[in-house]
Amino acid sequence: MMTPRELSRLATAVENGGPLPVDLPEGSGLIVGITGAPGAGKSSLAAALTVEMRRRGKTVAIVAVDPSSRATGGAILGDRIRMQKHHGDAGVFIRSMASRGAGGGLARTSIALARLFRGAGFDYIIVETVGAGQDGIDIARSADVTLVLVVPGMGDDIQAIKAGVMEIADVFVINKADRPGAEQASNEIEAMLSLSPENARPPIFRTVAIAMDTDDPGVAALVDEIASRPRKMRLVADPQWRVDHIGVAVRSLAESLPFYTEQMGMTLLGRETVEHEGVEVAMLSAGPSRIELLEAMRPDCAIARFIDKRGPGLHHVAMRVADLSAVTARLKNSGARLLAEPQRGAGGHLYVFVHPGSSGGVLWEIIQDSGGL
Known about the structure:
With 373 residues, this protein is α/β, with parallel strands linked by helices. Helix content is 27%, strand content 25%. The protein has helices at 4-15, 42-55, 79-82, 110-119, 155-160, 182-193, 217-228, 253-263, 302-310, 324-333, and strands at residues 30-36, 60-66, 92-98, 124-128, 145-150, 171-174, 204-206, 242-250, 268-274, 279-286, 289-296, 313-321, 343-344, 350-354, 364-368. The strands form two sheets. An eight-stranded mixed β-sheet has the order 9-10-11-8-12-15-14-13. Strands 3-2-4-1-5-6-7 form a seven-stranded parallel β-sheet, with helices on both faces.
């Protein structure tokens, strides 16, 4: 396992949109998502689960997503403050992160961090969402098991989960179950589940997570349930493909640009010379994507050879993904031919090219999304 310092450094890079290490193992840990309305006790439950998992000798990483401060952009009420009892435990790694305005209860790089921690060898990776009520459903796309929290006396919240969160629950948890109304909350959830096949109904657990320093049988039983769940195998979790740009080889930018800017009405975003590729690049806006014009600066560069062989025209299609390293690893494992290892291109983005022979005759450029997953 990496040292805490090494892991912290990698986590910072990934959180800021960098790719996962190319040689990162897939890992075998379970990703456990915790979602629910604000005030349901998600942080307390994450801490209680961690205590029980550590009692069993398991290592735990926590990704705690908090609302962003409008003043600083950082996390409000960071969970490292709320989980001080785990400070100094080498078997626990806690990372608080701001949502940075992302919807769905997660930050854009939350799942990338979870995959980093899984690859680093942690047995359990707990991802606590920001608490966005019925909109906090993104975690279910990548978690192996998703816990949905409700609390007694919040009937409106229980009704609200019909619209979204209920459908993604692997396990329902009635937290603060020592309060009046726990039985009613359980009955309401069971009533909502009654239309589903019996073998497809998520189990319901009751916990008092704040009592984590005592023997809380609800938390112990919940960990048993989590441990029994199989891992959802994903070589690439939600790569989130989107077209970044279309690359067009031209003989001369000066001659070609007027067509795009004057006749097509596109906006020139900028020009740049990429010395190591021997090309000059002009990037134009094309709605949600872009057009990249490429002029050869020397006769031995790839664009010059392309034009000599095929003439000016469509050179490549560029797709942006949330996790370039994972996509690259998947392509290599499947036998696809890459033209080189990932490298920096125009604008400083990290990219890799896939040989046309592996993709039906199209040169694909795959770019790391600067925002991450």
